[in-house]
Amino acid sequence: MQLPDGGPVQGLDQQKMLLEAHAVDDTGGGHPAMVFLHGFGTDQTIWRALASRLPTGSRRVFYDHMGSGASNLAQYDPDRYSNLEGYAGDLVDILEALDLRDATIVAHSVSGMISLLASLRTERVGRIIMIGASPRYLNDEGYEGGFERGDVEDLLDLMALDFQGWARTLAPRVMDQPENSALTQDLVFSFSRANPDVTRRFAQATFLSDHRRELGECRVPTLVLQASADVVVPLSAARLLADRMPNARLEMLETRGHYPHVSAPGEVAEAIERFLREPAG
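== Alpha/beta hydrolase ==
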């Protein structure tokens, strides 16, 4: 979100506008802060179960990607958000507006690459925790991304023709918790309440992205958390992600599905705490 330059007072007004536009929830204190980034089709409320299991007292920042949740749709620019760079720019702007340093970014799905791109623009990112992240979702020669281009085109067509039907169809597959229908229904509700046009554009920016080249440029200590089975991200993609990042490691989770922070928040919280106790060097 680009705002015009101004003096000190105007600058404070611009920062306030930015934070309000993304419905930023900044709570707690301490250093470093943890910044939570939701994935495509959800909003910051997706973090409730995990946040309640993390140690209290630390500073936590939650916000909605532009066009999602309680963000200000009047600020949505289709050109800016046609790729992930626009979302990465928002993260950088929010880190600067809050003057966060050495921040730990907890990022789900596509936000893993958004965080990575942001880390290449600013030194304010200290660590990254990627949950169910992928550098590329489309299959390529010698690479299993999980989707053929036709699969993505069918997904986008369904979103355009029957958005509610898309939500009801996709949620059970990606949650992959048939024994807990409440989790699936919550995800259906999250998908369904999103803006159809904006969500479809976000899906296009997500599933057609390819950030394999940037992986080697990210020197930030990174934990890649991968569920035992994920219909969105194959294990091979998660391994490539961790292998190509110079300071990353992969940790497997016992739970299934693309939303382990929802289906197994305790397991994810324990993995995060272990990672944060590790030396940052």
